[in-house]
From TrEMBL:
Pfam families hit by this protein: Cupin_8
Name of the protein this chain belongs to: Cupin
Domain of life (superkingdom): Bacteria
Domain JmjC: 117-276
InterPro entries, alphabetized: Cupin_8, JmjC_dom, RmlC-like_jellyroll
Amino acid sequence: MNRLGELAPIQELEGLSRSGLTDELLTRDTPWVARGLMADWPMVKAGQQGARHAREYLLQFYQGITVGTFSADAKYQGRYFYNEAMDNVNFERAPAKLDQVFTRLQQLEAESDPSSLYVGSTTIDNCLPGFRQHNDVDLGERDALATIWMGNRSTIAAHYDLPDNLACVVAGRRRFTLFPPEQLENLYVGPLDFTPAGQSISLVDFDNPDFERFPKFREALANAQTVELEPGDAVFIPAMWWHHVKASTVFNVLINYWWRQSPAFMSAPHNALQHALMDIRALPKAQRKAWKAFFDYYIFEADESTHAHIPHEALASLGELDAHKAMRLRALLLNKLKR
């Protein structure tokens, strides 16, 4: 039986530098780790000197904008999750000034059993203007969103993200545990509509997995990959890979670069899932099977042969999608939903 300390490692790419971040690496459908990829960043060097130095470095760029904070009582040991009844969450959200957050984090360092506090995914250019002039990575033509996470010990439940993600640890340590998308059924995912932070999460407590309640989680662990990152290290997490993230030191800073491989005019596929829940799931089994054939034919297995028998000028939505067609389809759907 695999335990969390006995999982397969994520592939490490030896000697990779930021200039070596090729399109091939940044479009892979499997994860990889690059040790020391950001080792020369001033932020990383400040973090290696300690939490105080890391906070002082960050505050050089702070211009007073309010940030969003998450806080949880010490009894939850940094695990951000639902409450016992699953009708609310076990943490609080509040706006705050970053310098005040850092003061509170410094106070928590002196406590033997501190509560958890962190600033969630925050756009760097808004919160810390000028930071990326000294601490950044060139991702080519990708329109990547750079965000930052700052706080003390925390555990973020396994979840997936739609964009590809280059996650860079620049202070503290973080352990990432990843699962390929096909492990969905073995992760015991919670509600789709009510989630702690936007994405559906695994209900399994990775620190104390209940294998009687979640027996298929053993299969998930057999297919998991893990790594513990130090300052300067980075992990590439492909879109739709489930990832559980545990920050383990008194002050941790993570920087994410997020980007999609699809055009900006495309909406989130989750919208299609919600439509299917409303319009397909309750159909008789034979009809669901028929619609599965439609989706396979027109979506999942589609290629040029799917519409080769139709004149090009008559393809409409079956042809190559562009911003104009996407807008027209969206308007059509909105009109139908209003009926």
